[in-house]
Design brief:
- There is one protein chain.
- The protein is mainly beta and 121 residues long.
- Helices cover 11% and strands 53% of the residues.
- It contains two helices and ten strands; from the N terminus they run E-E-E-E-E-H-E-E-E-E-E-H.
- The mean pLDDT is 92.
C-alpha cells in the first residue's frame, strides 16, 4: 500500500458525533474510510485509523480555531499577515497584496487596525 504518512485537517468523531476538536490528523494507521452523515442529507468521508476517527473540517469556525494566528479581515476571510507585502486602498475597496502576487479584498472597517496601518501604501 502507498505510504499514508500524510495529514488531513480533521474534526474528531466519537460515537458518530463531532466533538468540536479540530487539528491535523495523521493518516498513518488508516484502516478504512466510510461515508459519514454529520447532518441530514449530507455525506462526507470519515477516516478511521488505529488511533482515532475523524471527518474533514467543513466550517469557517473550525478554521478559526485551527489557525488562531490568522487574522479575520472580513466575515469570511482569514489572513496570514506574515505573507502580506502591503495593503492598498483604492476607491473600490481595501486590498491585501501578498508576496506571491495574490491579492484579496478586505473589509474597509479594518483600515484602523495597527497592523493594516503599518502595511498601507
Amino acid at each position: 500500500m502507498d505510504n499514508l504518512d500524510h495529514y488531513v485537517i480533521g474534526s474528531t468523531v466519537v460515537n458518530d458525533k463531532e466533538i468540536g476538536e479540530y487539528g491535523l490528523k495523521n493518516l498513518k494507521g488508516l484502516c478504512y474510510i466510510n461515508m459519514y452523515s454529520p447532518k441530514r442529507n449530507y455525506l462526507v468521508p470519515q477516516y478511521h485509523t488505529n488511533q482515532y476517527s475523524f471527518s474533514d473540517v467543513r466550517t469557517f469556525e473550525a478554521c478559526k480555531q485551527l489557525f488562531p494566528n490568522l487574522i479575520q479581515l472580513d466575515s469570511g476571510l482569514l489572513v496570514n499577515m506574515s505573507e502580506v507585502e502591503h495593503v492598498e486602498e483604492t476607491r473600490f475597496g481595501l486590498y491585501a497584496h501578498f508576496y506571491s502576487g495574490l491579492k484579496t479584498e478586505i473589509a474597509k472597517n479594518k483600515k484602523d487596525l495597527d497592523i493594516i496601518k503599518r502595511l498601507m501604501k
